[in-house]
């Protein structure tokens, strides 16, 4: 893993956004895997600023978001689709027909997951996927367990994950849905490049387990040790466990 430690989250997210913009200049038809949550928020803000300065062109790019709450329609203000519209899609020149999202309100979750995997496969997989990491080591909503699921699937969200999402629901974890649809480990591991973001001391243990712990479904992010091109972008808090080794 290629690890970069920055003095602040702002420096890390600016560098990550610049890297994505450079990748787009090299390959304008880039296929992006995009997360939600707190970690990527400042990356989206930086990308929007680059677009405003004429330094980012997404007109030929394609995006696939990683997950959506089960049972939640796209226009719900708490949906991940609404999050992306507010913070990113409305401010850049991604073509609407190139934006792909799981439909949490689809009547058949399994069919929706199969549709999404087929759509990713049709474009040849992800070129660059941006990931956060949960305090319990989850990536996308691939939660710790006895085994991991390769395809897109319905995931039950752990208590830790739901607590981490409480800010999207008025700081009330009880309002966070119990399940979500998520891209599985296969699409993530088959992406040609992974950018992983982690900020704050609360992520230090997960980052250390990801990089130096055993490869185990108890820490899904640890499987990234097997990936050929992972860029890890940390602030000093998230890197604190690495510095103690």
TrEMBL record:
Q: Which domain of life is it from?
A: Bacteria
* Primary enzyme class: hydrolase
Keywords recorded for this protein, A-Z: Hydrolase, Isomerase
Residue limits of the Glucosamine/galactosamine-6-phosphate isomerase domain? 10-232
A Pfam cross-reference name: Glucosamine_iso
- Does the record carry Glycoprotein as a key word? no
* One GO BP annotation of this record: N-acetylglucosamine catabolic process
InterPro entries tied to this protein: Glc/Gal-6P_isomerase (IPR006148), Glucosamine6P_isomerase (IPR004547), Glucosamine6P_isomerase_CS (IPR018321), NagB/RpiA_transferase-like (IPR037171)
Q: Name one GO molecular function term.
A: glucosamine-6-phosphate deaminase activity
What Gene Ontology terms describe where this protein resides (cellular component)? cytoplasm
Q: Which PANTHER family does UniProt cross-reference here? A: GLUCOSAMINE-6-PHOSPHATE ISOMERASE
Q: What is this protein called?
A: Glucosamine-6-phosphate isomerase
Q: Give the taxonomic lineage as stored in the record.
A: Bacteria, Pseudomonadati, Myxococcota, Myxococcia, Myxococcales
């Amino acid at each position: 893993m290629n690890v970069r430690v920055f003095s602040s989250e702002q420096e890390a997210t600016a560098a990550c956004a610049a890297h994505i913009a450079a990748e787009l200049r090299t390959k304008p038809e880039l296929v992006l895997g995009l997360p939600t949550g707190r970690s990527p928020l400042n990356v989206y803000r930086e990308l929007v600023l680059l677009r405003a300065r004429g330094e980012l062109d997404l007109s030929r790019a394609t995006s696939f978001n990683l997950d959506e709450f089960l049972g939640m329609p796209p226009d719900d203000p708490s949906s991940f689709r609404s999050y992306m519209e507010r913070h990113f899609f409305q401010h850049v020149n991604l073509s609407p027909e190139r934006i792909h999202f799981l439909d949490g309100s689809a009547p058949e979750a399994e069919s929706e997951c199969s549709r999404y995997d087929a759509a990713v496969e049709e474009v040849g997989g992800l070129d660059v996927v941006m990931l956060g990491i949960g305090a319990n080591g989850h990536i996308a909503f691939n939660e710790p367990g006895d085994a991991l699921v390769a395809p897109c699937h319905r995931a039950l969200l752990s208590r830790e994950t739901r607590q981490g999402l409480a800010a999207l629901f008025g700081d009330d974890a009880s309002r966070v849905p119990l399940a979500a649809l998520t891209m599985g480990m296969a699409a993530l591991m088959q992406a040609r490049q992974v950018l992983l973001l982690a900020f704050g001391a609360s992520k230090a243990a997960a980052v250390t387990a990801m990089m130096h712990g055993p490869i185990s479904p108890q820490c899904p992010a640890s499987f990234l040790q097997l990936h050929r091109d992972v860029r890890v972008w940390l602030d000093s808090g998230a890197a604190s466990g690495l510095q103690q080794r």
